[in-house]
Amino acid sequence: MPVLDMLKTELREVNATLQAAAKAKGNEAFTIENPRGAHAMAVGLDGPISVTVKGSTGYYCAGMNKLATVHVTGSAGPGVAENMMSGEVIIEGDASQYAGATGHGGLLNIKGNASSRCGISMKGIDIVVHGNIGHMSAFMAQKGNLVVLGNAGDALGDSLYEARLFVRGSVKSLGADCVEKEMRPEHLEILRGLLERAGADAKPEEFKRYGSARNLYHFNIDHADAY
Amino acid sequence: MCGIVGLFLKKDDLRPQLGDMLTDMLITMTDRGPDSAGIAIYGDEAAGLKITVQSDTPDEDFAGLDAALSGALDTEVAMRVASTHAVLTLPLDKEAKALAFLEARGLRVMGSGESMEIYKEVGLPKDVAARFGIRAMGGSHGIGHTRMATESAVTTLGAHPFSTAGDQCLVHNGSLSNHNAMRRKLAKKGVFTKTENDTEVGAAYISSRIAEGASLGEALEGTLKDLDGFFTFVTGTKNGFGVVRDPIACKPAVMAETDDYVAFASEYRAFADLPGIDAARVWEPEPATVYFWER
Amino acid sequence: MDKTPQKTPQTDPRQSWTFSREINSEIRRAAATGIYDIRGGGAKRRVPHFDDLLFLGASMSRYPLEGYREKCDTSVVLGTRFAKKPIELKIPITIAGMSFGALSGNAKEALGRGATLSGTSTTTGDGGMTEEERGHSEKLVYQYLPSRYGMNPDDLRRADAIEVVVGQGAKPGGGGMLLGQKITERVAGMRDLPVGIDQRSACRHPDWTGPDDLEIKILELREITGWEKPIYVKIGGARPYYDTALAVKAGADVVVLDGMQGGTAATQDVFIEHVGQPTLACIRPAVQALQDLGMHREVQLVVSGGIRTGADVAKALALGADAVAIGTAALIALGDNDPKWEDEYRELGTTAGAYDDWHEGRDPAGITTQDPALMARLDPIAAGRRLRNYLNVMTLECQTIARACGKSHVHNLEPEDLCALTMEAAAMAQVPLAGTNWWPGKGGF
Lengths: 227, 295, 445
What we know:
A: 227 residues; alpha/beta; 11-stranded mixed sheet; 11% helix; C: alpha/beta; TIM Barrel; globular; glutamate synthase activity (chain C); GltB (chain C); oxidoreductase (chain C)
């Protein structure tokens, strides 16, 4: 397994090496040592490759990921897996704000807590957070699923579009146009699949589902306060 | 817009390394603030008051300064020069007279207190830290800042930390949106700022609240109500260290705590070299929540 | 005694200047709907502009160049600071970002064709990259916007440059509910939104805030694209000195500065007319920032907002810009607001030249629409040629002025080649009032 030590290797070389290996589609597995909170690590990967980051990362780790698997053994800084298209990103520790922002696909699996704005503007990504999430999570979320085993902070799902939010614990407050919705069999099925993929020890029946009330879809003067 | 680092030691055995650890943290934050850098360090308490002054022409201005001040105050004055800064030590009750004397000589007062010394200059953090020899400094806690100037000038006085009262300092990441109105309000109460900088208004606000009888915690709570805009503030006092973020909390902030220290940084990578960081509790301060540690 | 009834003379009915017909109609509209007016088209009020400046020209003290014969270069290279592959343009005029969604695929294709024929670039907009524009634009700038609609790494990699949009001239700091932008099926698909809904708009980027964060975002974009592509940062003309300086500090290769007359994007009328500064007022502070940082011409400055003629181009360059961008003018060149559609404009309650509801998708000229029947009215090949012609005319005009000032490259135009007709323009452009050596703010007279 090739090892890239960030004490000895420049970020540009680390990313260029990973990007080339991803493109070669050789299913190679890399280890990055001494990440020391560096930014923009393992970004723009476009192919089947597995990267294990031993330690904690800075901003935008695994940004715009496609097909690759990126596994961070520590915590991740702001914007982890931002705009992810596909593949899987696993964070053993906590994730800072904007985790999975604008993600279009793939699975972001956060074993610890996620900070504020988790899943902001998400467009199809699946995010599973084993701990809690911070305020303004799933703001303007458009598509995809956000699963939270712990609690959610203030203003969950504000200005939500069609993303599905599943929370097992408490929700401090719901944002504008976000409401609790009935958990139908098809939702339990989706949730079961996500929990299984994320290796989460929880039952779908323990969760509540939240979604858009769709009151902001067409302007109505009586809802103007919600804008 | 900036980078912040802070370190508050819970035990004395790391005290000699404080400056060394803070310097590494500060240099890591260079990208967030390449314009100027500064540090407030709470070192050994002197027998008396320490005043940190700055001059652009230190050779001229500092030569014989201690003797002149000593003569004017009719008391003993000790002086330690570090590059463009000098720390003058004198009896506590001579503060007002000493400050007037120093300002009359055209020196810029960075701050004063029984414990706090402030060093700040225009330039890259590594150069600023080197010229003052911050690595060699010991102490109980310290706060550092790297600045990317938004609106006010890139000058020594515009650098952080800002000190608007004895042993108090403040650094800031973000941008306040009502500092002009607040500056006028404070001026009506007789609290005047020296620069056009938004952060100095934040510092002056906190100092004035404390002077009116508020605790540091209450003053920090007050920033949430009275200051508008985006901010992560880290503040130091003689015995303590506080953190508060605005309710929107967009500007980054991360903290780490072990049995030995509490650390603050704008980015995790500033922690990478701290002892025992792998086992530390690492978390992000909540929005609109005041955190405070005191010895 | 004369019994004829006497008519008392009356003063003519007097319309209030404060409560004008226009203001009153807006009050009635607001009272009826409960929502602010939303439109495109940039500021319509009269603001000090390039028309208030004149070139001095050469005569005795300076020597002019012979028109059409002696060389006057118009080429410009954007992105020389960090990018491995800077963008080389034949003319200093580019096409500004306009969204697919507001614009039809045909219109995007026409912009690409016209720009490519003239040797310049086009820019995507809010809504992602379309095949129409990528296919027909030799050089395409990919906008990176707060919405991130359609954002994906493949398009990022096939762009020639990336433009991080922090602000637009029409709405510096703007966002909120931009209702009435009805989302058709294709647009909805590209934006991951439900079909037929009103669209909301974010004012900040979802994953960074402020220049210190932007520096890291730019690092990420460079790492994803191998440090090849120029990174532009687009700002609205609000605080141009500080914002330009901060864009440079954050690592931009190019700063795009959009004044208040700019903006094809739909936003609140109150925003368009009351927030931001005129383009003329923005250039000197931005150039000053670049000069203070030692970055003038190292980081290129592209100015947009109300550029209409080669004279405007020459004046923007003389004040220190490296290039300009056009949006509204390009749409008009394609055929927007053409009086030949007057009957249909009337049906929409407007008139040719005043139509600005580009977000509503009912454009009779078939440019700002997704309606197949209307779209079909625009022949992208013919419209592309019209744009090419217009760009070439502007370039010739700019060269004519540059030669008259004795310049063998349009970039050698300088503020000293200008004078101002009004005190306002003199103050904003920091060039002397005509016939004097003074401008407001400059000491001495």
